[in-house]
Amino acid sequence: MNTESVSNYLTKPEQLTYQVIRPFQRFFRNEASSTILLMGATVIALVWANAPFGASYHHLWETDLVIGVGDFAVSHSLREWIDEGLMSIFFFIVGLEIKREVLVGELATLKKAFFPVAAAVGGMLVPAAVYYFFNRGLPTTHGWGIPMATDIAFALGAIFVLRNRVPLSLRIFLSAFAIADDIGAVLVIAIFYTQEIVAHYFVISLILVLCIAAANFFGVRETLPYGLLGILLWFAILGSGLHATVAGIVVAAFIPAKGLYNTDQFLQKTQSYLSEFQCPPDGCGFSVMQNERHRNAILSIELACHNAETPLQRLEHALHPWVAFAVIPLFALVNAGLTFGGMNLVEVFTSPVTLGITLGLFLGKPIGVTLFAYLAVMSGMASLPSGAKWPHILGAGFLGGIGFTMSLFISGLSFDTHEMQDYAKIGIILGSLISGLVGLILLYAFSNQNRSPD
Fold this sequence. Notes:
By secondary structure, the protein is mostly helical. The chain is 71% helix and 3% strand. The relative contact order is 0.15.
C-alpha cells in the first residue's frame, strides 16, 4: 500500500500528522542518515569546545556520576560512563553483526571470507606500521592502534552518496571488510590496551560467561536473562581491569541465532491463521477491531513471527537505531571536542602523533587494503567481487581510512594527557576527512569512465 492509498483512509488531522511524521520516518530508516547526525555532533563538539564558554564543554563531561546501592557504588565521570557504558551497547551491536556475518553472511565460508579478511588484515597492519615509523622510540608508540580502525557508519554513509555508481558487490565488500576490521580492533583493545588484571573480578567474569553460555545451550530464547547477565558481566569486567566494552562482544557471541520455529513450521502456522480471513464480496472493513476471529488470527500471526524470528535478529533490529542515532552521535559529541586556542599549529602538524595517525589513515589504509587483497587474489584463495575492479578496491580502501569512531575510542585508551589526545583527534579528523574525500572522488571518477553512454 503506497503513501497516497494510506492517506485516503485518514481524516484531515491524521493526514497532516502523517505528512509531518513520514519524512522523519524515512530519515531514520535510511542507513546513511546516522552519518549526518555523527557529522553534526562532531561540528557541535568542535564549536562548543572553542566558543567563549568552551570551558563548560570539558567541565560537563568530567562531572562525576555515582551509581550504586547501599555500600556498593561505582563513580565515573559522564565521559567514562558514555565511553565504557553506552559504548558497550555499540560493541554489542558490532558483536551481533559479526556473528550474523560469520553464520550466514560474507564471512560464512573461507572462500567468501578470505578476500575481505585479507583486506582488513592489510588495513590494520600497514597503518600501524606507518604510525610506528613516526613514533618509534617515543613514549607515544602506544598509540599504534589508533589508525587501524574503520568507522563502518561513516564509510557506508560515504559510499551511499554514490548510490548506483558503484557495484552492489563493492558495498557488500566494504561492509564485510569493516566488520572484519572491527574484529581486529576488539582483539587489539582486549589484548594490548588492558593495563592489569584483577584476579577475583576476572574469575567472576568467567563464571558469568559460563552462565550466559549455559542459557544458550539450554535453549533460552527470551532476551531478558541475557540482558541481566550482561549487565552483571559489564560490572565484573569493569572491575577486572579489562575494558568494560568487551562485555558487549562476549554477550553477543552467545545470543541465540535460531528461532523457536523453523521456516516450514512458520509457513504452516501462518497459512492456517490466514485462512481465518474469509471476507464477503464487499470486503472485511477497514478496522480489524470489527471481527473477533480476525483479531485472534492477527495475534496468532504476530506470535508466530516472534517465534520464527531469532533473538539475534530481534536485538539487532531493536537496538541498531538507538546505537546509530543516539549512542554514536553522543560519543562523538563527548570525545570530538578539542580546543585550538593556545595550540602551536606548526608543532601540532609536525607532531609524530598527528603525522602517524593522518598518514596511517590516509596512506596506510588504502595501501594495506589493496596490497593484501591483491595478494589474496594472486594466491588463488580469493577473487575480486563480481562487477568490481581494482580501482574500486582502492577507492574502498580510502573510505576504510575513515576511522573516526573507533579511532577516537582507541585514542582515549592510548593517551592520558589532554595534549596528546588533542593531537590524536586532529590526526583522526584530518586523516578521516582526506581519506573520505579522496575515496569518493576516485570512485566517482572511475564510475564515470566506465558508465555506458545514455
